[in-house]
Amino acid sequence: MIADIPHVRIIAMSAPYPPVTPSPKRSQLCSRAHAQRVAMRMFDAGARQVSIVRTGDPLQPFRVLPVIVDGPNVEVELRYA
Which residues contact 36 (CB under 8 A, 6 or more apart)? Predict the structure, then answer.
């Protein structure tokens, strides 16, 4: 039980991420268009499957993964037929 452990503290956080004011360069690198370019480069380099996923994180709103991801946050999937 958590109550029996004296060194455990539970802290409630008000917001999951701090507010961010992105620079123009970060805005460009964090765009969906840039994620698509990265995914196409990975696919052209031989990746058999690539997914672009929304993360919900303002510092990295999209993540490009070399796997097929099943879920509501998937933006784009590329795969060889």
Answer: 52, 76
Cβ burial 6-21 (10 Å sphere, 16+ → b, else e) = eeeeeeeeeeeeeeee
Q: How does pLDDT run across 36-50, given as a tens digit for each residue? A: 999 999 999 999 999
What is the DSSP-derived secondary structure letter of residue 9? -
Q: Residue-wise over 47-78: b if at least 16 C-beta within 10 A, else e? A: beebbbbeeeeeeebbbbbeeeeeeeeebebb
- State pTM to two decimals: 0.70
Q: CA 66 to CA 41: how far, in whole Å? A: 11
Q: Determine the Cα–Cα distance for residues 81 and 68; give it in Å rounded to an integer.
A: 13
Tens of pLDDT, residue by residue over 2-12, are 444 455 554 55
- Please name the residues in contact with 3: beta carbons below 8 A apart, sequence gap of 6 or more: none
